[in-house]
Design goal:
heterodimer; A: about 525 residues; mainly alpha; Cytochrome C Oxidase, Chain A; 16 helices; about 65% helix; B: about 100 residues; flat
Amino acid sequence: MTHSYLENTGKYKGILAWLTTTDHKRIGLMYMYAMMVFFIVGVLLGELMRLELFRPGQQFYNAQTYNGIFTIHGIIMIFTVVIPGLAAVFGNFSMPIMIGAHDVAFPRLNLFSWYLFILGAAIALSSQFLGNGPPDTGWTFYAPYSTQTHTNVVAAVFGAFVLGFSSILTGLNFIVTIHRLRAPGMTFFRMPLFPWSLYATAWIQVLATPIVGITLLMVIAERWLRIGFFDPSLGGDPILYQHLFWIYSHPAVYIMILPAMGVITEIIPTFAQRRVFGYKAIALSSLAIALVGYFVWAHHMYTSGMSITARWVFSLLTFLVAVPSAIKVFNWVTTMYKGSISVKPPFLFALGFIFLFMIGGLTGLSLGSLATDIHVHDTAYVVAHFHYIIFGGVGFAFFAALHYWYPKMYGRMYNFRRANTAFGFLFVGFNLLYFPQFVIGIMGMPRRYFDYLPQFTLGQQISAVGGVVLLIGLIIMLANLFSKKGVKAPDNPWGGSTLEWTVSSPPPVENFDELPVITGEPYNYE
Amino acid sequence: MTNSETTHITDYRVYGWVLLALLILTTVTITVTWIDLSALTVLVALIIASVKSFIVLRHFMHLKFESRLFTVFVVMVLSIYILVISLTFFDYLLR
């Protein structure tokens, strides 16, 4: 008899069986549980910020505490939630099954990556409790301030460095898995589009992450050894830090968003019961985004003092990345055209993703454009744009993926009505929270400011209300998914056509008794 | 998706030549630091380092004997790094 991956059949029982597992599905779930804890902490820190900003002036805590809170909010959300994000959770859980493999290429390395992830997160979070108080630099650790502040920057930076290694190893594992372990007959162009997006993501993880790793070590070297990399008083150049940081951190945005796009590309054909429109264009646009995404980093630096020629060159390059992104959006919409659409919770979240990602993407054009960026740089407008892409995009895609693969993960269904209600609260709450930030940003509200002028009060208060609505949505969603057991899930509850829907729910330990032989395209609904 | 199981016997003389080439290039790396090349300093250092890396990759890391796919990967990665470094220094040169 074949056992489900949720049953313990090995040497250990209980928690030890999970902590020593090399099963990609269990590791995916372990990433998810850890990330959920980090996410909830990050959300609560965000709510604390909204509370403080409810009125101008000091309400509950002082400016230095505010600096610490937005810094750790950023570090937690970026480095421990959205960068590992969909790739670590759903890439691990679903990708090997989708390509017809028994596991990833290096299962032990996969478990090691998870331990590095936990270790890195623990080191980063220790920055709150050790040394001279929480770091106050923002998650970007801009030099020369990060090399001079007395707060505990080193722990946070070193934590991010270790987290980077986890990301590199996962990327390496996925590249080798996709090259070497595809099922017989599964050519690259017969591979589903979620693994395609993971493949593009993995290359960014492997190539870009070492750059930020070295950069963060350079910050530590400058703090401890006074080597002048970035501090002008030591002969360094602060703009070099920004270059090195964004050479990684802009592609990192694509590490976050590409798997999200991949998930949406799986969900839409399933719920429209229609062959995906422009398969090759979507597959290659993932690679194009990954490639072009390397050469646009300095659009974060228009006001830094870099050369004028570099500014307009990077502005031009930035506009190029909009092309493959738009290809995806047009293809999703065209896939839905004349489809037999079934509006179930995963599809609703996917639609939410497209709507919010479009707003985030289009407002990104005004930030990528040199002239308009100068006006809104470092204002709440950037905060709104970034959250529309990262929370509205990656976050909603994560929720979509969770609702899509949940029956496969746990072998049971959830309550659709409650899931739809949660979506309603999340969608309305999200827009109430972040849309006013666009408006007050254009009016001149700076980002990362503890205090503000009275004209921004209404916008800040609408945001605070949105924050509460969003929190209610999150509670409903998590309670629906994790508080009680739903009915048993069938193997293919949504009528999907990719390989994960051909195995039982939950899947057996090594996914397939016999590897499937692929003879056609992945999205065959005709 | 085939496993290359072929073994390769490399003549000791080849390793000797590689060692010699690396030693000479290291000497060149040190020697050029005495010459003032102004804006070209980094470029020259990177070119010498790239040649050394190419030799190591080709012989010691067996790129010469492996599937062409690995060569494509290495060329792709190097091209991206060259472009990234060029764009960074493009800002410095025009500032």
